[in-house]
Amino acid sequence: MTQDPLVIFTPSGKRGRFPAGTPVLTAARQLGVDLDSVCGGRGICSKCQVQPSYGEFAKHGLTVHDDALSEWNKVEQRYDEKRGLKPGRRLGCQATIQRDVVIDVPPESQVHKQVVRKRAEARDITLNPTVRLHYIEVAEPDMHDPTGDLERVKAALAAQWEIPEVEADLAILGQLQTALRKGGWKITVALHHDAGPRPSIMHLWPGLYEGAIYGLAVDLGSTTIAAHLCDLRTGAVVASSGLMNPQIRFGEDLMSRVSYAMMNETGADEMTAAVREGMNTLFGQIAGEAGIERGLIMDAVFVCNPVMHHLFLGIDPYELGQAPFALATSDALRLMARDLELELHPAARAYLLPCIAGHVGADAAAVALSEAPDKSEDLVLIVDVGTNAEIQLGDKTRVLACSSPTGPAFEGAQISAGQRAAPGAIERVEIDPETKEPRFKVIGCELWSTDPEFATATAETGITGICGSGIIEAIAEMRMAGLVDASGLIGSAAQTGTARCIADGRTHAYLLHDGSAEGGPVITVTNPDVRAIQMAKAALYAGARLLMDKRGVDVVDRVVLAGAFGAHISPKHAMVLGMIPDAPLNKVTSAGNAAGTGARIALLNKAARGEIEATVRQIEKIETAIEPRFQEHFVNASALPNAAEPFPHLAQVVRLPDVSFNTGQTEDGGRRRRRRR
Amino acid sequence: MTQDPLVIFTPSGKRGRFPAGTPVLTAARQLGVDLDSVCGGRGICSKCQVQPSYGEFAKHGLTVHDDALSEWNKVEQRYDEKRGLKPGRRLGCQATIQRDVVIDVPPESQVHKQVVRKRAEARDITLNPTVRLHYIEVAEPDMHDPTGDLERVKAALAAQWEIPEVEADLAILGQLQTALRKGGWKITVALHHDAGPRPSIMHLWPGLYEGAIYGLAVDLGSTTIAAHLCDLRTGAVVASSGLMNPQIRFGEDLMSRVSYAMMNETGADEMTAAVREGMNTLFGQIAGEAGIERGLIMDAVFVCNPVMHHLFLGIDPYELGQAPFALATSDALRLMARDLELELHPAARAYLLPCIAGHVGADAAAVALSEAPDKSEDLVLIVDVGTNAEIQLGDKTRVLACSSPTGPAFEGAQISAGQRAAPGAIERVEIDPETKEPRFKVIGCELWSTDPEFATATAETGITGICGSGIIEAIAEMRMAGLVDASGLIGSAAQTGTARCIADGRTHAYLLHDGSAEGGPVITVTNPDVRAIQMAKAALYAGARLLMDKRGVDVVDRVVLAGAFGAHISPKHAMVLGMIPDAPLNKVTSAGNAAGTGARIALLNKAARGEIEATVRQIEKIETAIEPRFQEHFVNASALPNAAEPFPHLAQVVRLPDVSFNTGQTEDGGRRRRRRR
Q1: A99 φ, ψ to 5°?
Q2: Scanning A179, A212, A561, B666, which has its CA 20 to 30 A from the CA of B349?
């Protein structure tokens, strides 16, 4: 008795013996090899293309002969004539196994494709879409065995796709009979596989549908709403777009929005309407950019902080404004997009990631999904800086999270010359330690301010103020140049030896740029600016340090800065200020918009949803407001970089001048600090 | 070692031993005894009242002593003072077992109460409601273990009611935080237990809700919509109401509505809007009658024929107008009532029974649920007469069903003096076999027309026409009196010897009533009237006979007439016409509105839904249109009572005169019949 032919699939390495004449697709399915198919093996969708390899395979102890697969049949010939098959390719549903063979499944034929992420350290996303297309051939009605058209569609899905139960709503029922007859009892069904306990029919196309379907990954921030439009077949981002959150007119920061809801009877509803309207504007915009029908957007994932979460869902955020900061719901939500008044495909779904705690929202969960501290071998501190900083510390054994109220200083608010990061804003600063003279860069121009071309290059934008990353660098450079002491006091011209240190009431300010000659602003860093940044960074550091206490460590292996702000902070300057714990500088990296990336992962990978839901339940939540040591850490962290903690890695790179400008006369910095807490 | 006390519950007979001190409710739950509770054993809802029995129980070999249960505790005393406990009653959650005891669970303390049906032969309905109230005490939020309020509600339902998973929609999320705080973390939750794979939270009340909740059983007919409003706690019908189907303006019968949809682009949508609007009118009306808020109506069950089913759901009935009569869906449907635009509780559910086939709808399924042919020991034929007759034949071994196109003659349409059953319509007829003189009754008057008081009693309504049951009796009486022959020809005055047989074109008519002296109509039974009834009854009989062929029988054990029309037909007269197969007259009964009763069963008993869904799948569907023998049976059944079948039971009761009025001149009856088929 001769053995059945052996089939080895690459890259999976899955192998098995099948009777001669077995189609490659059938073998792949039986072995669980990831080989795509929309038409279910009828030779019309071409998704199951494979590449047989011929010759000697010493590794497998196998010789593959030229006749290992069946010859081209008519279906393949017709397909090749009409659409063209790449050289060497076969249709997996048509080619049958004749002798031992090695078959490669190219990436585009895999359902679970790898979506490559740009950052080197990031893991790729495995495509595992929630919405899939299934071509079916449906039995015609039979008077002797009368069943509904829907019941025969269900039977076809069960028989041809092994999907035993599906849901269909009234809209689908209303379209079903026409679609079936128009398609000659052949239709393509879009199924949502994460809509509930059973897959749900979202759409019907007569015949084989070969077009694209799309999904949205949305990062709903207090200030901006940003969205990526993804092709759900490939995982590719086809357009990205953003919009100011229209809720800004009700309050710049979260707490002012919560109070707007408290003070105005319809306040919460107005803000809900505003954010949903903003979403729809954004979705129209992004669909226009990509040149697609927005009705082809069938899934959407949202990440946001708890207040935005509640307002987006239409829940009054009242309870989030006061202890114990109770969320209406913390679990992930699977909703109909239309219940959120979103104008997408009529059956489009919305998925909201779980919230971690009353101050640590679905955006933090998305960061956890993207940066995966729970899978990290080394101990990683992840900091997402915004009005609140969400902080996570952990490794694969244990993850902790907290939120810390940094306030809006890092976003340029509460800073005398502060502004949002926009063209004309100073974003990089250097101060010569000898001359105490600064040079800087503004957003929209690559030149330093000392460059002869700088004035011309910035003529249009002007030099309008200083953004968050700019103020961080300015103060850190001032500390390194000996213009500000460890307690945060700016020295006088006499103390520092530079006329740029000018009197400013009872304290001093450092003149960064005088644009008055050109009719522009005078940009200084004032002592209250330094105080504001001290408060903000002390809150951030104290939160991180608290998690380190809880974890029982004094150092972390690496630091990840998440968020748009994190992407623009210089690690060295952040460490000079003591914003983040001491670590080797090359171990401080930026993850960019990790929350948005997390949303994209949850959009493209159904399994990732379940994973992050389980992970979030495991994360230990620390509430800084009720932790006694938070106050102690905060006070220590008010100093630049810190009154209590050593920064040995920083010391290897930077020597901070041991200056002190406290003359005993100007004590208001210390008093203010005490009053504020 | 002494044994634990023995507890015997009646009427269930369930028994078990429990440690002294076990609350009665706990023991009942562990034994699976049906003892109600809304508050979950906190002594506030009083639903778990039980009646201990004392003394000798020879049957159980048990003596119950006075101290078998604990003494009254404070909770019981307080409850008795405030609300009063019936003598001998105890609260099952407070009274604890001390010694052997026999405990009766009175009907009002059972969840699964029996709802008594009026007819002697009908089985009672077991209450097993889809919507149940659950009082819970919810953990307060804890900053150290931050979870959402919803998640703690879910945990409470799991811990206090053993309901592991529930769904909640956005509306519930929006109300949750306020309700919890208003109720001091105690709320009553209404759960729908038949909404999908998981129970769904429909409503939240702060604290303990002790009010009623309601459901609707709706029989959506082509002509009328009838609804029963039921108290879901007791199963009682608290109001019943009906309304003309507003779709009548688009066509009297189903096929004219299907053609309206075919001929007018928005026709189907208009009819959908009309029937939904009619429903809402009816629901307002019925809630008004019962004096309840319609927002307390939380569940609704609908039964209807396939065309009404599709139009109600918003599905174009086009396919139902032509072979193969394909339904868009045949399975039972569980929907949100709001998706059908019904103005009930915002989270109210709608349940539609399954359809049996393209012509045999959810109304027939409801009849099957009510009359349960699949549970019958003897062979029962169930006939629901309307524009289509739905016919079921079977017993517990096998059930068959078909529909037969009787047309609207039984409803008084196509009859010269025909009218709907309304006051003034002749509904009963007797003809003296000697004098050939008639007497009759009209709807709204109990007197025969020969009564001296009759004219006065009917002065207000008048004598306006003849309804469906009236025409049946009239023609049957004419047949018995020798005025019409077996072929359906009415004799002339000369042939019959009565001047009431008057010439009417080429045929004759029988003068039933001449109201012209009082300005009223002349009411005759014409030969075309007889022909119309012949066609209708032949279709009905042929359908029944076809099922008997399929089942391989020539006789049935009993006949059930369902529907409003069936309730008014005299079995004897129906059998004289040969509408139904021959059977002992006392074996022909009326089930009243069996479809409506089926709807009520499905409303009150969740398990009945699953049962009828399974039953419908088992029913063998026969399509009369493609059965060759149907035509043969139809032709035979055109005769009065039948040209081929013997009617031995009928012959024992009635002797039909052997007359023939065919003179060879008037053959149009025969020709017409051939043309028609």
Answers
A1: -140, 175
A2: A179
**Which amino acid belongs to residue A19?**
P
Query: What's the gap in Å between the CA of B629 and the closest CA on chain A?
Result: 15
Same domain (yes/no): B475, B394: yes
Q: Please identify, among A88, A109, A130, the residue that sits at the C-terminal boundary of a domain.
A: A109
Does residue B430 belong to the interface with chain A, where contact is any CB pair within 8 Å?
no
Q: Which residue of B has its CA nearest to A618?
A: B145
- CB contacts under 8 A, A 123-142 vs B, are 140-142
Can you tell me whether residue B206 is helix, strand or coil? Answer: strand
Q: Residue B605's Cα: distance from chain center in Å?
A: 13
Report the CATH number that the domain containing residue A285 is assigned in CATH.
Answer: 3.30.420.480
Whole-number Å distance between alpha carbons of B462 and B459: 5
Residues with Cβ within 8 Å of residue A91, at least 6 apart in sequence: A43, A46, A48, A49, A50, A75, A76, A79, A85
B198/A358 Cβ within 8 A = no
Distance CA B220, CA B208 (A): 36
**Whether residue B664 sits in one domain with residue B580:** yes
Phi, psi of A502 (to 5 degrees): -110, 155
What per-residue confidence (pLDDT) applies to B667?
43
Instruction: Name, in order, each residue with C-beta under 8 angstroms of B23's C-beta and a sequence gap of 6 or more.
Output: B41, B92, B93, B94, B95, B96, B97
DSSP run (H or E) holding B311: helix B306-313
What ipTM did this prediction achieve? 0.85
Range of the domain at A387: 370-408+533-671
Residue A318 is encoded by which pair of tokens?
A: 């009242």
Interface test with A, best of B170, B265, B319, B626 (most A CBs within 10 A): B170
Residues 274-293 of A with CB under 8 A from B: none
| Chain A residues within 8 A of B350 when measuring between CB atoms | none
Q: Measured between beta carbons, which residues in chain A are less than 8 angstroms from residue B146?
A: 324-327, 330, 356-358, 621, 623
**pLDDT of B45 over the 90 cut:** no
Instruction: List B residues 626-655 in contact with A (Cβ-Cβ < 8 A).
Output: 626
pLDDT 10s digits, A102-154? 999 988 888 887 776 666 556 688 899 899 999 999 999 998 888 999 999 99
8 Å CB contact of A141 and B326 = yes
B532-556 pLDDT, tens digit each: 999 999 999 999 999 999 999 999 9
Interface of B with A in 512-571 (CB under 8 A): none
H-helix or E-strand spanning residue A75: helix A74-82
- pLDDT tens-digit profile of A518-554? 888 999 999 999 999 999 999 999 999 999 999 999 9
**Across B58-62, B66-70, B383-387, B663-667, least confident range:** B663-667
Beta strand pairing call for A214-220 and A297-304: parallel
Q: How far apart are CA B35 and CA B45, in angstroms?
A: 13
Classify residue B451: in a domain, yes or no: yes
* Candidates B149, B170, B313; nearest CB to A313: B170
Q: Which residue in chain A has the smallest CA separation from B149?
A: A328
CA distance B612 to B327: 18
Q: Position of tokens 């959402």?
A: B148
Same domain, A292 and A375: no
How many A/B residue pairs have CB atoms within 8 Å?
155
| Interface test with chain B among A145, A147, A200, A335, by most B beta carbons within 10 Å | A147
% of chain B with per-residue pLDDT over 70: 97
Question: Could you say which DSSP state residue A92 is in?
Answer: T
Q: Are B297 and B215 in contact (CB under 8 A)?
A: yes
DSSP string, B62-115: EEE-TTSBPPP-HHHHHHHHHT-PPTT-EETTT-BB-S-EEEE--GGG-SS-EE
Residue A362: inside a domain: no
User: pTM score, two decimals?
Assistant: 0.86
